[in-house]
């Protein structure tokens, strides 16, 4: 049957009807263990009762008024995020791309407000992914996302990951900021070493640049801290977050210091839907859970358990899995078979994982997973690797 939808997705032939915790149920009744979480979005799993109550309660009162008026729950969520982070101010949007657009505009406006409008260029890093708008695909620099959309948006200078000399050469009189993901998600779960983040902070201070952190995928508890950059002791000037912060409801935020946001005055930026009452109710409910005592400790425990058990799977299947990357509950398996082949084979084992760059599959389970969920996922990954090994032996014979 021909679909009325634009064919921009290569969708797997499964439609899900309902979910609970880390499990999804397809329309035909089959159950799948979800270790993709909607690409790190469903941080608290499916149908979390506290989120369901927050959303349905708010839905019975008010959905949308626009930012022409005060939104008390938005004021509350903004204050809670400021209190829990380096930031002084928050701007709410609907997605990670929009949060990154706000961050990019803020970095440029900072210099313009300081009398240097020529400082608009932002240095980014090879393998990055910052979104799908014209500006954010230019920031990410991946040609496969840029091709066919006309001239690349000017103002972004990309350097190889970890190449300090190239970075120094890219910083010039027009440079406004450095922009980086603490762990590249789409790029293949490549972790930026803490010493590199500290060096970026020092370079920004030396050259009068802003440090922008993209924590769209790494934030809201996924690494066992509220935000991944906290592990390095480095403080950004501007940070984007999304995905997990809404627990499945569209929500993004750009957080910044008051100094970095000095150019963002009334009328300089805006959004129709960003910060709407429904999103704010859910965002506050997510923080209720993630900031509760012991929650981040649970994430660390489950992440350590998962990584330890995956190591034994890698030992048993060295021709399939060559490396385990990442930390806590943002992990990647570097493969010696095509990641799309592995993803499809895992789906046959009723396990959902997410392909990424550098021939990696991502494991991004809900943060509420249990020891039994970990054991079941490892069992299914082991079966997937075994299935692929058997296919390879058959092909060789």
Descriptive account of the structure:
With 397 residues, this protein is of the alpha/beta class. It has 2 domains: 50-290, Aspartate Aminotransferase, domain 2 (3-Layer(aba) Sandwich); 294-329 and 369-397, no CATH class. 38% of the residues lie in helices and 18% in strands. The chain has 12 helices and 17 strands. The protein has helices at residues 37-40, 49-59, 72-84, 96-113, 134-140, 143-146, 164-170, 194-207, 277-290, 295-316, 339-348, 371-396; strands spanning 16-20, 23-26, 31-34, 89-93, 121-125, 156-159, 175-180, 183-184, 190-191, 210-214, 238-241, 252-256, 321-327, 330-335, 351-352, 354-356, 360-363. The strands form 4 sheets. Strands 4-12-11-10-7-5-6 form a 7-stranded mixed beta sheet, sandwiched between helices. A 4-stranded mixed beta sheet has the order 1-2-3-15. It has a 4-stranded antiparallel beta sheet with strand order 13-14-17-16, with helices on one face. Strand 8 (183-184) and strand 9 (190-191) form a beta hairpin. Helix 2 (49-59) packs antiparallel against helix 9 (277-290), helix 10 runs parallel beside helix 12 (371-396) and helix 11 (339-348) crosses helix 12 (371-396). The longest helix has 26 residues, at 371-396. The chain is globular, with a radius of gyration of 21 Å. It starts with 15 loop residues before the first strand and ends with a helix. The mean pLDDT is 97. It comes from Methylobacterium marchantiae. Its EC number is 2.6.1.11. This is Acetylornithine aminotransferase. Its cofactor is pyridoxal 5'-phosphate. Homodimer.
